[in-house]
Amino acid sequence: FFLKGIILEYVQGGEPKTRSIDLLDLRPDTDAIALVEEIQKGEPLITASCKEHVIHLVRRLQEKLGEKEDHKFYLFKVLRAHILPLTNVAFNKPGSRFITGSYDRTCKVWDTASGEELRTLEGHRNVVYAIAFNNPYGDKIATGSFDKTCKLWSTETGKCYHTFRGHSAEIVCLAFNLQSTLVATGSMDTTAKLWDIEKGEEIVTLSGHSAEIVVLSFNTTGDRIITGSFDHTVVVWDVGTGRMLHTLIGHRGEISSAQFNWDCSLIVTGSMDKTCMLWSAMAGTHIATLTGHSDEILDVCFDYAGQRIATASADGSARVYDAETKKCIAKLEGHGSEISKIRFNPKGNRILTASSDKTARLWDAATGHCLQILEGHTDEIFSCAFNYKGDTIITGSKDNTCRIWH
């Protein structure tokens, strides 16, 4: 389950399917039993036998929503992770492990609680640039490299299951689907490829962009994937057939970021043209342009509920927009130079930004007030992440270190 919804998994005609149920209006004082009975009326998947379990999940979500939030983060550990700069950092879903990719051609797996290095994934012949866990499971890791290959590894043993070959240029982005059956890779060769995790083979090549693909993202149900390119467009593809469904045309600069919201109805895109755009995922139509930044937008994200959008810009500021009204509800000002990454905590009430001013900052998502400055890195921070509970942060910097904050 997520903080604002539950994913139901079921089998229909021998095929595993998933369906997401929104709980956007859930509050700590909502009557859980009445809510589930209401959902049950319109949702035949919630049978009498699993009703108790759903009520239990809803109550757990309510507990989370009710927790008081004034957590101060303190530096727990500095990891001199690699001999060359880091490229990316990522948590597994519970936050018990995280991974770092590096120019030193390796990916390292770390224990969050102790800060110990658990293993080094070696085998790539060039920069390990894109890395991911197959969350929510976390038993596999994918690494995408400038050596044009993607490797699939066991988190527990560090064994390499498969090396996916086929791209003719650097792999710069990758993603697992939520069902953990596919990994997608995006490359400087203008294509993306979908690979079967079990069989270790290519399923389809997504061809159609006229320039490098720099971002890709599955929706939660796993039937769609979007790719964003330097050709100024984002394409929506059908995962089952590899067919191009929509091309989102409107940006006047390279795409830097693209993401589905949680219920898969909206797509948000950020571009070097200084704007962020909102699109209908089903129709592929433009809904709104979010303006206000005076320089390139380097990162965008939805909160887990899909109610708010956060944008990070080279102008040194970040903004929060309401996805419903399309209005800017908060400006996050204070960084000394560009912000390259922005993340909501799972609850959606905090925002984390990483900047080339060598600091990361924690903000109140509703007011835009800066709550904390995470200082200590000696060079730009280009990667940051919350764990699922929202009580641990990792930051990755050009200073070759990774920092854990509790």
TrEMBL record:
Subcellular location: Cytoplasm, Cytoskeleton, Flagellum axoneme; Cytoplasm, Cytoskeleton, Flagellum basal body
Example GO biological process: heart development
UniProt xrefs under PROSITE patterns: WD_REPEATS_1, WD_REPEATS_2, WD_REPEATS_REGION
Keyword DNA-binding applies: no
UniProt KW Magnesium keyword: no
Keywords noted in UniProt: Cell projection, Cilium, Cytoplasm, Cytoskeleton, Flagellum, Repeat, WD repeat
Source species, domain of life: Eukaryota
InterPro entries associated with the record: WD40/YVTN_repeat-like_dom_sf (IPR015943), WD40_PAC1 (IPR020472), WD40_repeat_CS (IPR019775), WD40_repeat_dom_sf (IPR036322), WD40_rpt (IPR001680)
Principal localisation: cytoplasm
CDD domains: WD40
WD repeat windows: 79-120, 121-163, 164-205, 206-247, 248-289, 290-331, 332-373, 374-406
SMART domains: WD40 (SM00320)
Biological function: Required for axonemal dynein assembly and ciliary motility in ciliated organs, including Kupffer's vesicle, during embryogenesis. Facilitates the onset of robust cilia motility during development.
Assigned protein family: Belongs to the WD repeat WDR69 family.
Entry protein name: Dynein assembly factor with WD repeat domains 1
Species, as recorded: Phoenicopterus ruber ruber
